[in-house]
Design brief:
Elements (H helix, E strand, L loop, with lengths): L1 E5 L4 H11 L5 E6 L18 E5 L5 H10 L2 E4 L6 H6 L1 H22 L2 E7 L27 H21 L3 E6 L2 E2 L10 H11 L3 E4 L5 E3 L1 E2 H13 L6 E5 L4 E3 H12 L5 E4 L14 E2 L4 H7 L7 H12 L1
């Protein structure tokens, strides 16, 4: 299979490419502009004759036409990622998420090539009716709360994908990712597990934003990548939306305690108001827990790795 992966040098993208290349029949074309991706994530792949990398942007329509022409399927992972990055790069984030995705959908629709669109648990907004299933209502704050720009841009991606499926017969599957974590993830853009782990290993205060009562669930990148590939390969997923995550929740305060215990750190856990970290346009979310019954029924998906497995792998990576 000839596959294109956008966002190739990102945390999830690089793990996906490694898994795809494990199958000798696969060739992988890849693109990344390194805005949030790390060249080091794919440096070990550059000498593989079945890996073809191009530095560039998904906003470059000519480049995307060349790459998509080479491939049979497209894993579209490129997007603005991380709460901190998005709050600091609002215009760029919106353009990448909407215009970039439209480029991918328009070009792939010409050849009816299957596309996997990675969306986000941010879609559900600040609804408190968890665990969220794919038909749950979205509850968002006002546009003056700039946090909601990301949720809205990913919703437009989903609307576009469904429109191309219904109007042009494009085989497309949408997956809403819930807090994927593991080795190679960085904390600089607001990802909480690597941030906690690095603070704990350095003996620095483990900084919890807000009151720590936020409820989250985390899935290991290896489980997530397996789910993405299975969704792509299953014809029954065309035109559908799937949650991809772990149904096991944890509070952020408890997460900090687990990290402290597993690192055997002497760090203190401290609580910082959101306004010290983000701008006035920030609004946090209480719940991020998925109902995964649909993806389990369709492709037999079930996470294999626990939260402690994830944290231990991140600890090993940073040590």
């Amino acid at each position: 299979m000839k596959c294109l992966v956008t966002g190739a040098a990102g945390f999830i993208g690089s793990h996906l490419i490694e898994r795809l290349l494990c199958e000798n029949s696969n060739q992988v074309w890849a693109v990344d502009d390194f805005s949030t991706g790390n060249k080091g994530n794919i440096s070990n792949l550059l000498n593989n004759p079945r890996f073809h990398f191009q530095q560039g942007s998904i906003l470059d329509k000519g480049l995307m036409e060349e790459l998509i022409d080479e491939c049979e399927v497209v894993y579209h992972l490129a997007a603005a990622v991380g709460v901190k990055y998005i709050m600091e790069n609002l215009i760029k984030s919106i353009k990448i998420n909407i215009e970039g995705t439209e480029n991918v959908l328009e070009i792939t629709s010409k050849g009816k090539k299957k596309v996997l669109i990675t969306s986000s648990s941010e879609i559900y907004g600040k609804s408190e009716n968890y665990p969220f299933n794919e038909q749950s209502d979205r509850i968002l704050g006002p546009p003056t709360k700039l946090r909601w720009s990301y949720s809205s841009s990913k919703a437009i991606d989903e609307f576009l994908a469904i429109a191309y499926y219904k109007e042009r017969g494009l085989p497309v599957v949408i997956t809403r990712l819930f807090n994927v974590s593991g080795p190679r993830q960085v904390g600089v853009y607001g990802m909480v597990i690597p941030r906690f782990v690095k603070q704990a290993l350095r003996g620095e205060p483990i900084t919890v934003h807000g009151d720590g009562k936020q409820l989250r669930s985390f899935i290991h990148v290896e489980d997530a990548v397996g789910g993405l590939i299975s969704l792509m390969e299953n014809k029954n997923t065309n035109g559908e939306i799937f949650n991809l995550g772990s149904p096991q929740p944890v509070t952020i305060s408890k997460l900090a305690e687990i990290v402290k215990r597993l690192t055997q750190s002497t760090s203190n856990i401290v609580y910082i108001p959101y306004l010290q970290v983000y701008s006035d346009g920030f609004e946090d979310l209480k719940y991020r827990v998925p109902d995964i019954s649909k993806i389990s029924k369709t492709i037999g998906f079930k996470p294999k790795k626990s939260l402690e497995d994830i944290i231990k792998d991140v600890i090993e990576y940073y040590r």
